[in-house]
Write a structure and sequence with these properties.
This protein is mainly α. About 70% of the residues lie in helices and about 0% in strands. It has 15 helices and 3 strands. The protein has a 3-stranded antiparallel sheet. A hairpin with a 5-residue loop joins strand 2 and strand 3. Helix 11 crosses helix 15. It is rod-shaped, with a radius of gyration of 34 Å. The chain starts with 6 loop residues before the first strand and ends with a helix. The mean pLDDT is about 85.
Amino acid sequence: MHHDTLYSIGELARRTGLTVKTIRFYSDRGIVAPTDRSPAGYRLYNMDAAARLDLVRTLRELGLDLPTIRKVLDRELSFPEVAAAHAEALAVQISTLRLRRAVLTAVAKRGSTPEETDLMHKLAQLSEDERRRLIGGFLDAVFGGPDAAPAFAGVMRSLTPELPDNPDAEQVQAWVELAELSKDPDFRASVRRTAEDHAAEQARSDTTGPRRDIAAIVRDQAGPALAAGIDPASPQADPIVAALTDHYAHLLGLPADIELHRRLATRLESVNDPGRERYLQLLALVNGWPAPESLAPVCEWSVQALRFRTQR
């Protein structure tokens, strides 16, 4: 067939695979205007119209709206620019859909009530800035204030969750639980007390340079004893308890007496907060970090060993 061959709207529909109704709609909108009219007044189209319709169908399948398509066809807009803008918009939509899917999957696994689902959806839809403000409020309440220790700046950064652009259901559920936990006043107060205790210990220490947290010392000292199955009340535990109390006594500049045993036991009970451990677990899930080692077993072993020796 020749380039100047004209087709009726029915013939054009057969050539393009579009319906007569669709072609008439595009024609009425001026997107694909008829080339001519038959003596009876019917619309006629040439091959350029067929090619234009093919392009319209492609652009519609890519999600472009009709006003934008018309501008592209009339060369009022650069198609590469339109494609780039549309690709960016689609990326946002895809991210939103993935987040909704993750929320629904988390709801299905969690067995949430409608109220919990609503909260989960709202928390998951927070922007990155909104998420930072929410967690920032928690971290400021725990570590902030005019008398905040300078060392806490690094701690705050290490405790900040960063939900990825395309989180899976487990990360969304972890983020929601973490956000809920961060707003719990009892949890905030507990972490604040632990932070204040740590700051006070660091302030009393005359050691220069980085100072290890008491929980890390307990892990290193009591971990091998726990792994070896040593009873915290047995004589074999005496050297471990002595090492712990000596370290704590040196840290505080106090004698390693019974009162210090009690003080260290109370301190470790504060460190061994289930909420704190859960926060760290959730933080690792959200940030894609390896699961943190639980300090609960070594803290419990050490507290038992210390309490036993204060009762003799």
